[in-house]
Amino acid sequence: MKNEAIMTIDVQEYVPINGINQFLYHLGTNSENPVLLYLHGGPGSAESLFTHIYQDKWTKVFTVVHWDQRGAGKTLTKNPDQYPTIELMLQDLYEVVQYLKKKYHKQKIVLLGHSWGSVLGSDFIQKHPEDIAYYIGTGQVINMLENEQVGYNRVKELINQYGDKKSLKRLESIGAYPGSKISFDKVFLKKCGQVRKI
Length: 198
Description:
This protein is of the alpha/beta class. Helices cover about 40% and strands about 20% of the residues. The protein has a 6-stranded mixed beta sheet with strand order 1-2-4-3-5-6. The longest helix is centred in the middle third of the chain and has 19 residues, at about 85-105. The chain is elongated and about 55 Å long.
């Protein structure tokens, strides 16, 4: 029989953050444990639905909080017309961190940023080191624009290698991608989703 941790903390809630209600999911075995805020990838790839797949051992050490960021998951469902920008998301993150520090009576919390979440996490710890005990980056993004260009070029190369004219036509219909600058607006997010689908 699997030795599972007994969850004493299992809370799903919407919290007013930066003018909109945003979704947080808290899981843990002891409220005295350090708080770990998981910053999901994407943007738009909320992982709050998949917490039990990979984090059971984490909850023995941390109170793990998943935040469905602006434009993702249950936060998007509640606020379908609220599009993210990096500036807005950093403000959101600041408010989430302050909320968690107060809720759990902590002076600092831990940030774990995955992929896109590593962009937010890296920027945040430079601006607010006083709020963070330590930062963990996984799938750490170093240069988002270059990352998107490399990914796009690799997809195009594979399409050409396999002679998939239908996919090539779909890829070319997207237009210039990612462009000379990444702006997390509706147009970019749509193109980003299309490239990943192809």
